[in-house]
Amino acid sequence: MRRHFIAGCAASALLGGAALAQDPQATALQLPSGDIAMESGAASLAGFSEEDEALYTARFNQLLEAARMGAGLDSYDPLEPVAGASDAAPLPVATANTLSASALATAESYAAQRNSSALIILRGGKIEHESYYGEFARETPLVSKSLAKPVTALLIGRALAQGHIESLDQPVADFITEWKGDAGREKILIRHLLDMRTGLLPQGFSMDPVDMLNRSYLHPRHDELIIRFYPLTHEPGDRYEYANSNSELIAPVIERATGMRYGDYITKALLEPIGAMGGDIWLNREGGTAHSGCCLLLPGQSWVRMAMLVMNDGVWQGERLLPEGYVEEMRTGTPGNPYYGLGLWLPDTYTQRRGYAHPDKKVGQVFHGEPYLDRDIHMFDGNSNQVVYMIPSADMIILRMGNSPPRNKEWDNAFLPNMLIRDAHRAPGATMPEPQPQPQARPQPR
């Protein structure tokens, strides 16, 4: 049985570690004392075994106790290896940096003071700075939290390219056949799982052990539970609502579409073609289903390689891995949330606002010190500031992973990219990008 130490996240981990899932105004939680037992009859109602329910209850109490200490789960158990590429090699290092020594030192200091595990700055396909902190090193699999969500989009793209899935507009019920005959769920499309428009119950916070939000995160049969019982609250396609359940359904879709285990498909379809190191992924139980909405552990350079694939329009060393036009789909928001595409965050470059996890509720809004300087910047993003910035104007990728900053330090989501963009455009002959006017229309759904 494999275990891995998990850097604690805040009490919002009860929500599965989702990025932006918690109201920033909520600074304290009223946590009940003592263990919580499942209500009588809950196991028989769901049809799951007493052993499954006992394991769920133990996990819930473990997380509840950790939340009282301001932390999250201290381990994902069990883990399944994700092999990665057998010939994985370090990314090339720049022989002469294009970024100034002072800018790189500022970035390193900023990350070091904010509980980081890793900082990687890559420009023109070569590493100009790479730092690891504490017990972490280049080969250490890092906790990704919701960075796992853009991975689901890349895997769907690979499944499209390989012919396992017909299109983004194919019904999910073609794979989750339990939904056949359900008038509502039959309308959920593959793209809705990726852009958060399934109409399924949105993410929220609950201290009730019977609540679906907790069971769909911690239950040893979480996939079956989401498929059979997770509530449909809105018409599919009508509105954006951030929910881990959307991304968690990608694992069973991929497994049923390809006939491969989810972790094996990550290796064969994604990590091997881009030469990336492997790691581990959390299973709901021994031999069970992987979590695809969170809880993938990979070394820092593996995440950078995925960002490089996106930055290069889905082409790796001359080979097209993602269908033509697919990356543009990933970068296209919806009317419900123009700042979220297919697993990618698309920051508002015109104000100090990044967008909302739940726009209608104004929950999860994140401010930063100034507008982003690159109007086309996009990112992988997860709770506790797991972030990979992709900056086209500077041909630059920045990765920061780790814990939330200490209470006496803030994380400004625009500081690192803007500081390094300014430095990049100080190079001889380079000019800063001109500020762009606020667009009159946002991207339309596709």
Could you explain how this protein is built, in words?
This protein has helices at 42-46, 50-68, 101-112, 148-161, 190-195, 212-218, 222-229, 244-248, 250-258, 262-274, 300-311, 326-330, 415-424, and strands at residues 79-84, 116-123, 126-132, 142-143, 277-282, 296-298, 315-316, 319-320, 378-382, 386-391, 396-402. The chain is α+β, with helices and mostly antiparallel strands. Strands 3-2-11-10-9 form a 5-stranded antiparallel sheet, with helices on both faces. The chain has a 4-stranded antiparallel sheet with strand order 1-5-6-4. A two-stranded antiparallel sheet has the order 7-8. Helix 3 packs antiparallel against helix 13 and helix 4 (148-161) packs across helix 10. The longest helix is centred in the N-terminal third of the chain and has 19 residues, at 50-68. The protein is globular. Residues 1-34, 36-44 and 435-446 have low confidence and may be disordered.
CATH topology of the domain at 88-138 and 295-424: Beta-lactamase
Shape: globular
CATH architecture annotation name of the domain at 88-138 and 295-424: 3-Layer(aba) Sandwich
- The fourth-level CATH homologous superfamily of the domain at 88-138 and 295-424 is DD-peptidase/beta-lactamase superfamily
Mean pLDDT: 85
Q: Main attributes?
A:
446 residues; alpha+beta; Beta-lactamase; five-stranded antiparallel β-sheet; 13 helices; disordered N terminus; disordered C terminus
